[in-house]
Amino acid sequence: NAGVMQNPRHLVRRRGQEARLRCSPMKGHSHVYWYRQLPEEGLKFMVYLQKENIIDESGMPKERFSAEFPKEGPSILRIQQVVRGDSAAYFCASSPGPRVGRYTDTQYFGPGTRLTVL
Amino acid sequence: AQSVSQHNHHVILSEAASLELGCNYSYGGTVNLFWYVQYPGQHLQLLLKYFSGDPLVKGIKGFEAEFIKSKFSFNLRKPSVQWSDTAEYFCAVFGGTSYGKLTFGQGTILTVHP
User: Fold this and answer.
1) What angle do CA B83, A1, A29 make, to 5 degrees?
2) Closest CA in chain B for residue A112
3) Which one of A17, A58, B37, B40 has the fewest beta carbons within 10 angstroms of its own beta carbon?
4) What is the three-class DSSP state of B52?
5) Is the predicted pLDDT of residue A97 greater than 90, yes or no?
6) Does residue A50 sit in helix, strand or coil?
7) Residue A57 phi/psi, 5° resolution?
């Protein structure tokens, strides 16, 4: 599962700036998931994407956050006008996609991007 | 909304001690269950998973977990821990018809003293 790549590993932004987090899934995986881990908490689901489609964004904050997974290139999680409360570790996971008869399959995680907002 | 509860935030053991980490979930339907481990400075790795069949699941590095449907539990066990098992352990559950969304517990930090 080391094949899921995330960059940058560490990102420092000042309040009001934009943060862009990138995720390249494992080879052969077409499903990408983003999770956020706040201090002292577990991972919280944010969004689930397939190529060019957002499947489930029920965990995304309504404002300032957006995600995409274009036909070519990595998935991007974008946070506009960052605030201190956005400081967290953001993890990306990928999977090949649910097989017939199953609702889900195994998600493999990247190393995460640790965002610090000053 | 479904939730996952891990009973212990921090567990401290000596090498060779037995380990059991609790995980309970709230969803009443069909579930898929996972345990992930995060070693210091590394990303989450899959320890084991349960989709169906034998409720006793064996994973990597000598870990196993038992799915008890009547108790909504999926506890992680290891008969004899090693110093290298020091890490944070996360239980995760998928349940329902919403594809892909895993619900995680808050994590348990395991510290093993040599």
Assistant:
1) 160
2) B43
3) B40
4) coil
5) no
6) strand
7) -120, 30
Chain A interface, best mutation among B24, B43, B45, B46, by max A CB count within 10 A = B43
Looking at the complex, does the CB of residue B25 fall below 8 Å from at least one CB of chain A? Answer: no
Residue pair B36/B105 in contact by the 8 Å Cβ criterion: no
At residue A84, the 3 state secondary structure works out as helix
Taking the Cβ of residue A1 and every Cβ of chain B, the question of whether any pair is shorter than 8 Å is answered with yes
pLDDT digits 0-9 by tens, A59-70: 999 999 999 999
pLDDT in tens, A14-35: 999 999 999 999 988 889 999 9
Distance CA A60, CA A69 (A): 15
Q: What is the DSSP letter of A14?
A: -
Residues in chain A, overall count: 118
Give the closest of A56, A109, A112 to B100, CB-based: A56
Phi and psi torsions of B27, nearest 5°: -75, 135
